[in-house]
Amino acid sequence: MSHTEGALGLDELARMVGEPPLAGAPDPRAFDVQPWTPPNALRRDLGLPESLWVVSDRRPTSGPLAPEHVMGVGGASESLATITPREPVAAALDLGCGSGVQALLLGYHADRVVASDISPRALWCTALTCALNDRPVPELVLADLAGPFAPDEFDLVVSDPPFVMAPEARHVYRDSPAPADTLTARLLADIARILRPGGTVVLLTSWLVPDDGDWATRVLGWADAGRWQRLWAALREQVTPEQYVDLWLLDSGQGRDAELRLRWEHHLGAMGAAAIGFGWVLGVTSAGAADEPSGGIWAEDVRSARVLPTGAQVRAEVDRRQGLPGAADLLGRGLRLADDAVLTAVDVGGHAAAADALLLSMASSWRGPQPLDPALSWLFARVTADRDARVGRTITLAELLPACADDTGWEAADVLVSWLSGVRDLLGAGFAALDGGPGPARQ
After folding, report:
1. Of 329, 327, 332, residue with least CA distance to 398
2. Of 423, 341, 413, nearest in space to 378 by CA
3. Which of 22, 76, 130, 369 is 20 to 30 A away from residue 430, measured at CA?
4. pTM (2 decimals)?
5. What is the dihedral of CA 166, 172, 176, 178, to 10 degrees?
6. Are 418 and 327 in contact (CB under 8 A)?
7. pLDDT in tens, 29-39
8. pLDDT per residue over 266-276, tens digit each?
């Protein structure tokens, strides 16, 4: 069957899907069929072909998108596909399935796949996307968010929900039905209910950034700490209200609507938006064990990242956060750099700075270079020197602390504050690892 025309006959569509997912088939002339090349890491991890077919609505050559328009693969959907962990699971949900690309990918590592959307057109597109790639059509559910699903039903939920803060919810695929940026709070509560113990959610979202810039407190406040063993909110991009309005007006083909632009800017101003952040929230539900160590709830600005993390890197990230040491344990341990971690001096105006302003880089990391304050710079320079000198015993952080205070001129308490925060963050990010207590160094 040729896909060069970008439209399929209705009879062909029905034969591919088998039983129609819903009554009332849409006009097939509105559909577009385009090839999509998955990222290399995703192709490798799931054994995907070089390209996949994706069914969506045709984008009009002029004028605004229809309210029920179903988008194809864009930057957001590819980002979600990239960062989703891909270990085998029994049951997975694509919440707000759109064109069905996430459901299609879930079918490669989940025994059972459910795709839900409030739009019947989206369910048709999802069914057709899977059928066109010779993959099983998932269970299709016409639903608003996570309401109809049973407790503990899924091991994995992925979602690129309608999080756009528009003056009115016109476009089903993007405009939030909840006030301001509160949709994420509602989703986290609903998804925690339908995930099994130890289950994972990967959620794209956006949020308001107040005048003081403290977006993290707001976003982490949406999570019930008692239901999440680990939860990671990551800021990938931040824009001004004017940039936000421009982005979404162009997205929906309404860039020339000056009246809507003014209403939208007033809408954001009334909410107190100094900026708007885009990113992801990844959570792992509590397994319910009384002695279960918590990996914590944390927020991170990842705008300096070199690339998006892969699903495997994301899983490793949250796993490393499991049981990070407290103050006493941390001070009683030695520290070593990752094998490919490198320290470099900060270059200011073409001149290398003093060794109290270092960058920690790692070729295998998705993150960019990590700036270190003077106390951390001293610590990692010392760790590197000891490694190069093949020091025969592990030197604990407690033993190093007085020397760091003397050399930097910092109070010991200030060094401790820097190390407790900075070392834990770098351990979680994989730039460093702990050795045991005093004794032979780990090889």
Report:
1. 332
2. 423
3. 76
4. 0.89
5. 120
6. no
7. 678 999 999 99
8. 999 999 999 99
